[in-house]
Write a structure and sequence with these properties.
alpha/beta, 7-stranded parallel β-sheet, 7 strands
């Protein structure tokens, strides 16, 4: 797939899945704007992309803040001339007993993971709709939107909200030719993949744990302008774990 002349914003681009997404778009010809609070790692990603002859820029952004989001979008439009694709990837987690989770911690997770998607999508769509062929928005949710471990209330609520706001935005932006889809990753190893155990891989129907590149590839598919018939969906990428029937013998 070629994304030449496309401008792509990736939030949470400094590490992990966001980093892989930014590098994948750049490798396929896009001009990438990486947004993150982590300035050190964010700039390092830009340097790595430049070394591979890609084009990328970093803008320090707190996606919880409306003023920062507006600045990110306006700077991108001013410097790049257009916005074609937005990847809402920024997110945090707080796994703590609901008896101990503070309202400040709850608000931080919801504001970072969910509020930011509304803010970024609203502001980016104002410019994406100016394009002749519109554009695309991807929201990174999680399989935790539909299944849980104990002590994950804030994270689960935020990811469930992401799935819901995705189809709502898809409906609202349809007349502007903007597709909106979600991706729900399962276990995506962002650390040392070689340290994983055989049992970690075997519990997946795919027989392996996921990599950040698996999510990046899906982003390319969902934002390719040839695939504009796909909108409002939540694509689960988890090696089959949420479809695996598990019994204790």
């Amino acid at each position: 797939m070629s994304f030449k002349n496309k401008v792509v914003i990736v939030t949470g681009a400094a590490i992990g899945i966001g980093k892989a997404i930014a590098k994948e778009y750049a490798a396929n010809g896009a001009k990438v704007i990486g947004a993150d609070l982590d300035e050190s790692n964010g700039k390092r990603v830009v340097e790595e992309i430049a070394q591979q002859e890609g084009e990328a820029y970093f803008l320090k952004t707190d996606v919880r803040k409306e003023t920062d989001v507006i600045s990110l979008i306006n700077q991108t439009k001013s410097e790049a001339g257009r916005i074609d694709i937005l990847i809402n990837n920024a997110g945090v987690s707080e796994f703590k007993s609901p008896y101990e989770l503070t309202i400040e911690e709850w608000d931080d997770v919801l504001n970072t993971n969910l509020r930011s998607i509304f803010l970024c999508s609203r502001e980016a769509a104002k410019h994406i709709r100016e394009n002749e062929k519109g554009g695309a928005i991807i929201n990174i949710a999680s399989t935790r939107a539909s299944m849980s471990e104990p002590n994950s209330e804030a994270y689960a609520a935020s990811k469930g909200g992401i799935v819901s706001i995705t189809h709502a935005l898809a409906a609202s932006f349809t007349t502007d030719k903007i597709t909106v889809n979600a991706i729900s990753p399962g276990w995506i190893e962002t650390g040392n993949y070689e340290n994983l155990r055989e049992i970690d891989h075997e519990q997946h129907l795919s027989k392996r744990v996921g990599r950040p590149e698996d999510i990046a590839s899906a982003c390319l598919y969902l934002t390719d302008e040839k695939n504009d018939f796909v909108t409002g969906v939540n694509l689960v990428i988890d090696g089959g774990m949420t479809r695996k029937m598990i019994y204790e013998h």
